[in-house]
Every structure is written in structure tokens, then in C-alpha cells.
Amino acid sequence: MLKLRISYKIIIGVGFITSVAIIVFSYLILRSQCQGMVSQLRLSGYQLSETIKSSTRHDMLTADQENVHRTIDQIGMQKGINKVRIFNKIGMIMYSSDKDEINTMVDKNAEACYVCHAADQPLEKLSIPERTRIFKGNDGHRSLGIINPIYNEPSCWQGDCHAHPKDQKVLGVLDITLSLEDTDRLIALNRKRMVIFGIVVLTLVSVILWRLVQKLVGEPVKMLVEATKVIASGNLNHKIKINSRDELGDLAQAFNVMTEKLVEAQHQVYQQDKLASLGRLAAGVAHEINNPLTGILTYSSFLLKRSEHYPEIKDDLDVIVRETKRCRDIVKGLLDFARQVPSKKSHLNINDVICHSLDLLENQLLLHHIHVEKELSPTVPDIIADANQMEQVFINLIVNAADAIGEQKNGVLRIKSEAQMINFRNYVKIDLSDNGCGMSEDQLSKIFEPFYTTKGQKGTGLGLAVVWGIMEKHGGKIKVESQPGQGTTFTLLFPVDGEQSSL
Amino acid sequence: MGKPYDILIIDDEEVVVNATIKIMSLEGFTVDSALDAKTGLEKLATQQYRLLLTDLMLPDMSGYEVITYMKAKGIQIPIILITGYATLDNAVKAMKMGIFDFIPKPFEIEELLGVTLRAWRVQADDIPADPPCPSRRYLGKHAWVDIDSDGRAHIGAAALFRKTVGTINHIHFPARGQEVKQGGQCLKFQTDDTYQHTLWSPLSGIVIETNHTIQQHPTRLKDENPWLVQLLPSNMDAEIKHLTL
Ligand SMILES: Nc1ncnc2c1ncn2[C@@H]1O[C@H](COP(=O)(O)OP(=O)(O)O)[C@@H](O)[C@H]1O
Ligand SMILES: [Mg+2]
Fold this sequence. Notes:
By secondary structure, chain A is α+β, with helices and mostly antiparallel strands.
């Protein structure tokens, strides 16, 4: 199958149009040039014949045949002039630069005579173009013949030498033949130049066009085709380098955006798929495990109840019951994880979230005599986050701060929000400081671990673990600084507009 | 035919059935059992029981169908659904259908006996229904939630729970900032008979505050109807459909 590339199609099309234009154009130029040169020549030929006529007039009138001959010979010898001759009314050649011709008769049907003698009655007046003729001479070159009738005039019939009858209008004809050899050579040269010019222009246009099409269409399209193939083969990270600002550049840009979206969508589907299948797996496993666990738990609890009086088995049974409950909690944790609702992210103003969280906890803060200092920058940009999870973060942090302050009477909780630029990316930064009990280095390293708590029965040790998880999910970052007895500052960083965090 | 059984349990797991029979014997309850729904429904049609325990996932039928069948037949004994943790939302739906309570597997002796005794007391006492309240929604006849204008939710125990639970020794409250799930554990009650009772949360959300007064005086729960936990709901619009007025 013949598949023509766009570039070839364009080149063939444009090349065809250009060559037609060049051919027509050169033809018209050549023709008008040719015509111009010939008519120029006609004019100068006519002028020449008039000059000959007037320069021989005197000799004619005085019948000085020698002089006429000399003049005609001299003129006839000039370059570009083939022949100069004069013949009389009946066609006898009276004078000629070609001596052999003299006194011979011209054929009335010959080119020189034909113009006038074609009609029955010979014409007596002729216009300049009618007086000239172009014919091919014996030497193979074209020639231009000009006839100039010599009219009768009073001095001719009044002269005493020889009597021309008074009623004769035309006495004879001056015939000059000019060579067109030079003109033809010039025309041929011009034609050759035109052809060369045409070919050069055509090749140049084609080459430039080819390069242009290649650069503007061929390469970008090739890149697009290759990118499509790469993406079809499964590599969604492929990006097209965009270096043009035209429609194809836009197309490439759109293509890149599309692949990005594709990656996101794929990632989401993958995540959801993974979570869904994990959920199903977990539910299935849990269902199967829960039944034997019920058996173990009830039977061991039973034995435990009946072993009140056997302390040596009682301790061992205690371990079984405790470990079975641990198994139950693990299964429960797994299910809780599998059941996790995907976060519902939207544009949020973090100040609103902070204020709402503080409102919700107002009673507790009052009860603990905690003074709240808000330094919320009104210009913080929105972040994309799950409102509920954000509130969970702040509630956990504020509650922890309140716990750290405890019964202290001069408790202060400072919350500060501001926009920040880190590595050319926009972040929203929140500082949450309390002047509570603070933490040691050792403690700091453990607080984000699940089930780590210093609050005994009152704590779960899950608060900060959950906060950490939520921050991870939002591409954010959490840092803590603390001095025992001085207080603690939690710093949160959220990327703005869902920009990927590079921290 | 001898003395009728007190309780019927329908579960396809023999170990669960046997464990239940053993546990119930501690309180002197007699237990009949069926390993599939068909046998169970036959037994329900021919014999009198005072309480039904049924698994949610049976080989030939779901627990829902058993509940629907009982309603259709007009058998009005309390039903306790045995579920897995995997099926919290199923449990919530079943509560809306009018079961007494549910218990997730694997359960402890104290949990099963706690809920069984509560169900048993339903028939002994005449329990007044909760007065209707426009801002209040119920999870079955088990727990209620009051939704404030500012989006806060207060959770309390319904009359049926409060009147049947017995004498409370201790209430285990969730920590502030902790997340609870609809149909998941919200509070745990310890009664003087050493048994345990769980109050399931009517909504998912984050715990903001707990009622300190009740924490210090758990016995007040019986006659007052106080809120116990304050919650910031996280999925109220979807979850409120499972609650009743
Ligand atoms: N603002 C704070 N000041 C001092 N210690 C804190 C602060 N926040 C957290 N902690 C420490 O980190 C531990 C873990 O916190 P968390 O995960 O919220 O669990 P919990 O609050 O249930 O103990 C706390 O028990 C406490 O020791
Ligand atoms: Mg905490």
C-alpha cells in the first residue's frame, strides 16, 4: 500500500502550482520580450531603409548609379545586415549588395513582393508591420525583411534625365534584409536562463518547503505518534517535549495533560481496586477467623473461670485469653483499615477549619482556663483537603495541648497560620504551640507510634498516629519541637492547590 | 416433648453453637440450635422460644430473611444478630429492621451474657418507649443522637438500653479526638453482675467531648436520659438514612 506522507503531499501540491506558475510566467515574459525585440528591430530596420532612401535620393535624381551602388554596398556590408537591394516596378533588381543578383528578376510571389501582390490590384500604401516579414534564410537563421516602396514624386517626372510617367505611383521597392541571428541567440539564451531559473526556484521552494513541513509538521507529528505508541505500550510517564507554540504545540500540550490525567485516573482506579480487593480479602479472612476465634475465646474464658483454685494453670490461661483478644483486635484493625472511606477532598480555608475546631472545643478550653491566641493570616490560600479529617487533626492536637497544660492555671495555646514558599512551591504553614508539660527527646521519638501514650487508661495512643496518617494522605508534613517543662510546638505544612509535596 | 428451650441459636459454625450453649448454661438458659436457616425456621414455627440468636451469614439464607420471616409470622421474640466486624453496616440495617441488638464475633462470655440478659429483661419489664423528639434520631431502640444546629452530635442511650442494662459499675468512654464508626463501639458499660454491654454509635465521627458527670456517677443513667458523648459527625448525610425518628 502506498502511503503518502503529509509532507510529500504538500510538496507535490505546492511544487505543481509553483511550476505551472513559473512556466506560464516565463512563457509570457519570453513572448513579450521576443515581440519587443522584433518590433524594435522592425523600427530600426524601417529607419535604416528611410535613411538609405534619403541618402540615395539625390544620386537617384541625378541618376548617379555609381554612387547608389557604393552606398548600398557599404551599408550592406554592415554587421547584422544581410542584404540591401532595390528593384523596380516590374521586379528587376536594379541595385543590390549582392552583385550577382543585379538585373535578375524577383519572383512576385517571393516574400518581399507577396504582401502587396497577393491581391489582384497591388497595394500602394503599407503600415510598418505590413512592410516587414520574417523568414528563414538559406543559412538556417531567421531573417527580417523590410520593404520600403519608393514613391513617385514631382522631381522624378520633372527631371530631364529619364522620364518616369507621372501617373505611376510606386517606382520601385527598397528591400532590406536584417539578420535575426543575434536576436534569436539572445532569445534562446533568455529562454535557457528562464528554464534554469525555473528549475532553481522550484528546487529551492521544494527544499525549503520540505524542511519547513518537516520541522513544523513532520517532527511534531512523529513525536506524537511515537508518544502514543509508548503510552499504548504502558509507559504512562512519557512526556512530549514541547518546543512550538502553534496548534501542534497545543496538541502536544493537550496530549501531555491527557496522559497526566490518565496516570491520575489509573492510580485512583488502582488504589480503589487495591483497597476494594484488600477489603474483600480482609472481610473474607475475618469471617473465617472469627468463628474459630470465638471458640478459642469462649472455651479458654470458660477454663479460666473454672481454674480459680488452680493458680498455676490460671496464669497460662490468662495468656491464652489475652492473646486471643489481641488476635481479635488485629482482625478488627485490619477491617477498620479496609473499611476506610476514601477522603472527600475539596477547597478549604484552613483558618475556617481551625476556628471551627476551636469552637467545638471551647468548653474544654474554658474549663482548663486555657487562653487561646489566634494569629491567622487572612491571606492564606485554600488547600485541597478532606474537611472532616482536617478537623480531626486539629481536634487531636488541641486536645493533646489541653491535656499537656492540665491543671496549670496560665495555660496558653497559640495557633498561627501563614502562607509560605519553600523550594518555589506554595505551602500553608500552621504552628500550634502550648506551654504545657513538654516532652523529652526520648518521648518525641515515639509519639507518632500507634498505642504510645503517657496517659494510662485515659489515653489511647492513637491520636497522633491518626494525625500522621491524615497528613501523609494530604501530601503534608508534620514536625514537633518540644522542651520538657517549657511547652510543645507542632508545625503542619500543607501543599497548596494539590501541588505534589517535594519535601 | 420435654421442657421448652429458652433460646434458639441458628449458626452454621458448630464451635460457635457449642460455645454459646456452654456460655448460656452459666446463667441457666437452655439453648436449642439449628445449623441452617431452613431447620431454624421450622423449629421457630413449631416451638416456643423466648429469644433468638442468629448468624447474619447462613449457608442457605441471610439473617435478614430470617428477621423478615419472623415479622411475617408475627413471632415477636427479641432477636440478637451475630455478625462479624466486617459487616457493621449490615448490623445497622438490621437494627433499623427492629432487632433487639447485635453482637460481633468473636465475642467474650461477658459480652454475650450481657446482651442476652438485656434481651431477657425486655419480656420481664414493661419498657416505656422514648418520647418523640424532632431533632433526635434512633439506632433501632438502642441509642439516640441529637444533632445541633452547628453540626455537633450528642449521643445517648435509648430507654430500652438504659432500663435493661442493670446496675452500672463503670462506663468506658472513648478518648477525645478518637474516631468512632456508625455501628461501632462508642461506650462500654460494666455492670455489677460482671457482664459487659456495648453502646453502638448511631453515627460516625470524631469524639469532641464526653459527659464527665455521668463518668463520675454512672448510676444516674438509669433515671436521667443524659447525653454521653459529643461527636463531630463525618458522614452524616449518608448515615442518617439508617436511623429512625
Ligand atoms: N502537646 C503535647 N505536649 C506534651 N506531650 C504531648 C503533646 N501531644 C502529645 N503528647 C504526647 O504524645 C503522646 C501520644 O499522643 P496521642 O497519640 O494523641 O495519644 P493520647 O493522647 O491518647 O495519649 C501523649 O500521650 C503525650 O505523652
Ligand atoms: Mg491524644
